[in-house]
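Handout, page 2. Input:
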Amino acid sequence: MKKVFTLILSLLISLAQAEEKATLSGHVRDAVTGETLIGATVYAPEVKIGATTDLNGFYSLSLPKGKYQLQVSFIGYETKTIEIQTSGNSTLDVKLTSSSTTLTEVTVTDQAKAANVEDMKMSSEVLSIKTIKEIPAFMGEVDVLKAIQALPGVQSGGEGTTGYFVRGGSADQNLVLLDGATVYSPSHLMGFFSVFNADVIKEAELYKGGVPAQYGGRSASLLDITQRNGDNEKLHGNGGLGLIASRLSLEGPIQKGKSSFLVAGRRTYADVFTRMSKREDLKNSVMYFYDLNGRLNFRLGEKDVVTLSGYYGDDVLKNKEQLSWNWGNRTATANWKHSFSDKLIADISALYSDFNYTLAVNSTGSSDLEWKARINDETLKADFTYLANSRYSFKIGGASIYHTIHPGNISITGSDVETSFDLETQRALESSAYLSSTIKVNDEFTIDAGLRYSMFQNIGGTVNRYQNSTNEPLSSTEYDAGEFHGTQGGFESRLSMRHMLGTSSSIKMSYNRMMQYLQLASNSTTGTPLDIYFPASENIKPQIADQIALGYFKNFNDNSYEFSAEVYYKYMQNQIDFKDNANLILNEHLENEVLSGDGQAYGLELMLKKTQGKFTGWISYTLSHTERTIEGINDGKAYLPTQDRPHAINIVSSYQVKPRLQFGAAWTYSSGAPISLPTSSYEFDGVVVPVYDEKNGYRLPDSHRLDVSFTLDGKKKPGRKWEYSWNFSIYNLYARQNPFSIQVRQNADNPRQTEAVQTSLVGTMVPAITLNFKF
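Output:
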C-alpha cells in the first residue's frame, strides 16, 4: 500500500512540476453582446494542446514557451486565429463574431467539432437555446423540459406534460437547478408548460450519469439551467405574441462593457377571453400563470464578477364563488467569482428556493376552508478550482442547505366555527464537501476522479416510532428547537475515464453514487402542486443509487455526424413506495405509510446526430428496463414501476428551406406505462368490487406523436431597428389519442358489468401561431 501511495504521489508531483511552461488564460465572449461562451475551444495546433471554456466562459492553457497560432472557435461563430508569444503567464480575452452565413459555411476547427469525443463527459447532453427553439412546441411555447424528453434515456411522464423520468428513476429523483437554485415544481398549468422562459435561458445541461462531485441531493439526474447575462454593449429587447401567452424581455448595459441587466416577463391570458363568455361558469373562472425573471451582472475589474439573479412565478386557478388555488416558485441567486491567479479560481454563491401553494374553498352560507403548504431552502456553497497545468487540475468545495418544510396547515372559519389544524414544521440541515481531480495521463487517456461526503441532520421536532399495523406510535421523542438528531450520511464516489481511439472516436466509462434525502409524497405519475416533500429521518433512510456506464463515441464525415452508444446499470437502495390506499394528504403519520426496498435499472442508448448543414437533428433509440422489490407490495415480488418503458424512439430534425424559412419536425414513440388492472370482480351490496392481482401487470397502449413547425423570418430592411418572425406549429399532427390513464368503472347500463375507459389529455391536433419580435 505504501508503494502504491508513493507511486501516486510521484505522479502528481511530476505532473505539477512538468517542463517550464507559461499559463495563458482568459474569457471567450460574444463580440456583440459580451455574453460569455460556454464550451468554446482554445487550441494550439503546434503542440496539440487545447482547453474548453467552463460555465463562466473561462479557459486556461499551460503551454511551453514559444510562438503559436492560437485557434479560438465555437459552433455558430467565426473561428479566430491569433498569433501569440508566450514567455510568462498572461491573460488573453477573445471576442468571437456570430456567423451571418449558414452553418455549412462556418469554419470550425476539428478540435471544436470533436469535443463530444474528446470531452470527459458522458451520459450528459447540452442543449443550447437555439436547439431548443428549433423543436416544435405545444401551443407554440418553447419548452426546455419538453425538449429534454427527446433525448435518449429520458421518458415523458405523460402526454403533454413536463414531468420526466431518467434511466429508471422517479420524477422526484431529478434535481432541477436555475442559476444554481433548486426549482421544486418546474411546471405550469398542471404540467403542460415549464416555468422556464426560453427568452432568458442560455443553455440547459442534463446529466443522466457521470455527475460531477460538486453536485448531489438527487439519485437519478441533474438538469442545470443557466440564464443569460444581459447585453453589456447596447440596449435591446425581444418578445412574442402567441395564442395562449405573451412574453417580453429587455436587456442592456448598466455601465457599458462592464455591467448589464436582463428582465423578462411572461403571462397567459385565457382568463381574458373567458371573462367575455356568456356562460356564467366560464365567466366566473380564472386560470393563468405568469413568470418574472431578472439578472444583473457586474465585472469588477479583471478578477471579479458578481451576478444577482432571480425568478418569481405563480399559477392562479379561481372560480370566483367557490374555489381559489395558487401555487408558485421563487428563486434567488447571488454569485461571486474571483480569480486569485491564472490558476486558482473561486466560485461562491448564496441561494434561496421556495415553493408554496394555497387552496381556498368558499362555501356560501357555511364555513370557509384554507389549506397552505410550502418548502424553502437557504443555501451557501463555495467551489475552488486549481489549474496546475494542462495535464492536472482539481476542485474542492462544499455546500450547506437549510431545509424548512411546512407540510400543511388548514384553517376553517365560519359564522359559528373557527378552527385550524397544523402539521408539524420539519427542519433539516444538508451538508456536503467534495474533492475532485482531472489527470491527463497522456494524449489518449484521461481520468476524472472525485469523492463527495454528504450528511443530513434533522433539527428539532418530534420523532414517532411505529408498529406497521397501526398509525398509533409506540413511542415518541420530542427535540428542542435547534437540536440536531437523526444524523445520516455517507461517501459518494465519482469516477470518469476516457480513452481516445485515434482523433475521431473514444471510449468512456463512468461510475457514480448518489444519495437523496428528500422525497415526494405523491400518488400521481409526475406529481401535482398538492404534493409535498418529506425528509429522511429515523424512520426514512436516504435513497442511494449506484450507476456504472460504458460508452463509445464516434464522429463521421469531417465531424458532421456524431454517433454515441451507451450501456448502463443502476442499483438502487431504499426506494420508496406507499401502502395500498395510503393517505398522503395532511397525514401527521405519513412516515408510517412508507414502504422501502431495492430496485435496479439497465439499458442501451443509441444516438446519431447531424450537427452541420442545412439539415440538422438527431435520431435516438433507448432499450431499457427498471423494477422494484419492496416488502409489502406485490407480495414481496419484483414489479414494474410506472417509469418502465422498454422502447423509446425520438427523431428530431430542422431544415433550413430558404434563408428566411425553416422547417422543424419531431416524432416520438414510447412503450406504454405499466398499470394495474383487475383480474376479476365480485358483487357486494349491489356494488361490483374489482379484484387486483399483480401490481402493474399490464401496460397502457404504446404512445407516438408527430409535431411540426415552420418559422418564417420577416424581410430585413436597412436602417430598421426591429425584426420579426412568424412561427406556425402543429402539435400531434395526426391527432393520435395517446393514453394517459385507464380507469375501470361500472357500466352505466348494466351495473353488474365493469368497463375500462381510456383517458387522453391531448387527443387531437393542436395548431398554434406565434409572432416573435426583436427591437
